[in-house]
Amino acid sequence: MDLSLSTRAVGDRTVVEVGGEIDVYTAPKLREQLVELVNDGKYHLVVDMEGVDFLDSTGLGVLVGGLKRVRAHEGSLRLVCNQERILKIFRITGLTKVFPIHTSVDDAVQATD
């Protein structure tokens, strides 16, 4: 399966809607998108993972890298996910302590952290 990406502005946040699989083959596409957004001055990102069917360690690495990039600019990266199989990966790896994870884009956009 391929990876689909789209972005939109919601207030002062940029929402990156991700669909498909984030794995060793597709993760570079997501990395490029996050780097491009940061280079364009978009430092408050919401990654909507509702349409993600699969996530591997390469995908996790891309998300962590994106978080480091936005934090270098006093920014934030929030995740939207309520799929148990994907949330389990974040719990097992301890990344629930690193990423703010929300159940909807609205919650993520309105949150203050």
From TrEMBL:
GO terms for molecular function: anti-sigma factor antagonist activity. InterPro entries: Anti-sigma_ant (IPR003658), STAS_dom (IPR002645), STAS_dom_sf (IPR036513). It comes from the Bacteria. Keywords: Phosphoprotein. Residues 3-112 form the STAS domain. Positive regulator of sigma-B activity. Non-phosphorylated RsbV binds to RsbW, preventing its association with sigma-B. When phosphorylated, releases RsbW, which is then free to complex with and inactivate sigma-B. Belongs to the anti-sigma-factor antagonist family. This is Anti-sigma factor antagonist.
